[in-house]
Amino acid sequence: MTTEFRARIRKAIANPSLQVALDANAERRVKGRISALETLPNWRERRQQAHSIRADVIEHLDTYLDQFISSAEGNGIVIHRAKSAADAVKTVLEIVGADGRPHSEKLVAKSKSMVSEEIELNHALEAQGIKVVETDLGEYIVQLRNEKPAHIITPAVHLRRNDVGKLFHEKLGIPYTEDIPTLTNTARKVLRDVFLTANVGISGVNFGVAETGGICLVTNEGNGRMITTLPPIHIALMGMERLVRNLDDLAILLSLLPRSATGQKLSVYTQLIHKPLPNQQRHIIILDNGRTGLRNSPLKESLYCIRCGACLNACPVFRELSGHAYNSTYSGPIGSVISAGFFGSDFVPLAQASSLCGACKEACPVDIDLPKLLVRVRSGLSPHPFPSPIGSPKGMLREGTKGDGGLSTLSKIFMRIYSQVARSPRLFALSLRLASLGTHLVSPFSNMFRIPAFTGWGYSKDFPRFASKNFRARFQSGGAKGSQILIKQKKEELQATPVFAPQIDNIEQFTKELTAVSGKLSRTNANDLTKKIVELLQARDIKQIHVEPNLLDQAVLQKAGIIVSHTPDPAIRVGVTKAICGLADTGSILETDGEGRSLHASLLPEIHIALLRESEILPSLDQGVHLMRESKSAVFITGPSRTGDIEMSQTIGVHGPGEVHVFLVDD
Does the model's pTM come out above 0.70? Predict the structure, then answer.
């Protein structure tokens, strides 16, 4: 482990505000993931299915890439291949500058994309005089601070509300406040003009679907939909490994990704884009940038990653450090593996920042064996195992030589001793007793003696005491008997559980799930539908709506003095659309492109009203995902837009609508 890496570690551990923020993130994310997975009875089976899907894609990546490119180009999307970060940046600059206008007149709006961070796209665009604005709230905050994201899912995880309050006061000129809804609304107002005037929108890609040539984006705030819907040019940046074979595979991975990432059954916006919208260009840049080398190495399994961030939240080391200590685009357990593969040997020492406890493997929704991969990096099995020349620009030059993972001489001696002790049961048992005695003696004085000079402990906490009895002693004194009782109880529970759970009424479950995600539901019949909607509009003193053609009774609207528009207008407060279907298990509704610009009507206004027939509620995403196949662009909407980027405090209404009303129409 390098001197600079150690210095960053010590700085992070000694920062009390950072420790509070990281602890809160880890506790809420881990609990949220566990709770969300419990709502998916067969999640373990799905996890193994997901592993098999990702393994097959990576094993036959060239075949699936060819299929994806052929399908996407057939849909009218322009495909670009980029071997390196420089190639990707060059391609973006060519697309942005294609109309011949000066770069200084261009505005690029970006939604969150780790690939754009990986290739340092913002710096390259700004160097050409192009204005770039991050529109994800967390990314916007760190951009204003001139920082990199501290987490792949929650970029501003290292900050607290007072940090954001000071930042917005200094940079945006608002009165200082720590009220999170006020801070979020400030960002909404500032960024709304960016969405409406941007020349180019740049996004990432969660999954590419080889069979259909579509790209899937999973977001919560609404900025991803703005980026892909409003600007005349949309550029999607995709790592070459981010493919699934078909829509069935996509449904399986989407059942795991949001649960693992944010504890949601389905993210607010799950988009599938197949074609450009009218008067729009779509480009996909498929990036290699070290992925081929990683695929051909013993670290190939790391390419199965779906970027949920669960391993970061579960990792006890990341919980103390945050992403900035790693000095890499990708941090935590998965980052320690892929950084060594993508960026070279300077990042091999990151693999030392792990206890190999296995929490990352347990948390991974696609069952990547991260401890095994971390050991392989330490053993010099990454594509770039040897140190770079002195003077590496990243400042990550490791100490040690020849693929030893950066171990110091003292560490290598310790590992040899441990290897001998671990082979002997008697010596190992004795070492545990001695270690227990030692920690009981040393722990009260760890801060005084500055033990972290060797171990890393003592900067913000005392060295932990071992248990009074080790596992073997507890097991021999009654643990075995207790274990047998627990096993017997578990068997009885399993035998008592019915093989087939009873079917839950779709309407009842849809109502429950929609309410749980802050949506509102009203049941009505076709004759009273327009009247019910007029009552809602009049209660809000709303006189104009954006509505799809032939949905509502024009005579009733006219009598109530409601002006109807079929074209997008940011000033209109309400949009009315017809949902294609609903999902009972998540409370989601499906919207697709069509007459009346329904995608705009469900996105731009502050209130979205969706009409849904009772018979069109399906049990789950597995059945609904295929209805997205024929559309240019489609999106499952699960409640109003939201964010948790400031202290993980859920705030409703970010860039998309703050209210979603579903009128369920009796067939």
Answer: yes
